[in-house]
Amino acid sequence: MWSGSACSSRSTSSSKHRTATGKDFIVRLLNRTAGRLSRHRRGPLAGLAVLLLGLLISGSLYTVLSPAQADSQASETEQVAKGKELFLASCSFCHGQNGEGVATVRDGYQLGPSLVGVGAAAVDFQVGTGRMPMASPGQQAPRKPVVFDDDEVAALAAYVASLGPGPAIPNEADYSIDELSEEERQEAISRGGQIFLTNCTACHNFNGAGGAMPRGGYAPTLHGVEPKYIFEAMLTGPQQMPNFSNGNLSPEEKRDVIAYLGSLEETPEYAGFTLGGLGPVSEGLFAWVIGIGGLVGAAVWIASHTTRTKKSKVNA
């Protein structure tokens, strides 16, 4: 019985001794490895190796995380280069080789103003609606079929935008009311109507049908015009129109004006003949020529067809 206990005790102490010996071996091994690493780190090329490793990791991460940005910059550069080629071929005669404008006056007209700082929005409006390029300088650039396709218009806008900072082409979210609730849409239309009646009816009249302007110009109709181009016209002020910057009319207020004009096209005309929606001038002309003229003609006809008696008067 005592011998069994002694054996068990010797076995336990032997196991503990082996465990301690194993731990000491592992500690010595780790210390030796750490010592080797420490000696390598203190070597003359260790700092250079760490620096090169850091640069390699940074470059790899940049390459992986930013290829889209590099591709986007390359695409923009190509677009600007394409726009410059189109500009030199189609626009430089009037606006100069670098968009600086041509101040020479021929037949009372300036050939072309400077485009530095007008921004991409002005180009998108003028070229996207066919107003530019013009066949010849004049007081008014009417809307006509578009000469360039969408990609070419975008390229021209990108090139002119590169000449100097200016208004950018608006996004659909800037002028759309699709995301608004029905109540918010009605409020936007009401606000837009007040803004339009205050700032725009003098030229475009209350119905947005346009009207005459001094010196051979005219305010074009706003019926059927795309919302983007109305927004750009307010932002850039083409030709005789004043520009309403975001400091004058906020993007939300411009959106409200567009919403009001859209409601005019959706509202039925309950009064019968609209007479072009030109206001009191056309209505007054109709009243005088057709209304009063018709009454005068009817009176003359009645007088000429009245039955007259042929009996002589009998003296009393």
From TrEMBL:
InterPro entries: bc1_cytC-su (IPR009152), Cyt_c-like_dom (IPR009056), Cyt_c-like_dom_sf (IPR036909), Cytochrome_c_Oxidase_Subunit (IPR050597). Signal peptide: none annotated. It is a multi-pass membrane protein. The chain crosses the membrane at residues 45-65, 285-303. Its EC number is 7.1.1.8. Pfam families: Cytochrom_C, Cytochrome_CBB3. Residues 78-265 form the Cytochrome c domain. PANTHER family: CBB3-TYPE CYTOCHROME C OXIDASE SUBUNIT FIXP, CYTOCHROME BC1 COMPLEX CYTOCHROME C SUBUNIT. This is Cytochrome bc1 complex cytochrome c subunit. It comes from Nocardioides cavernae.
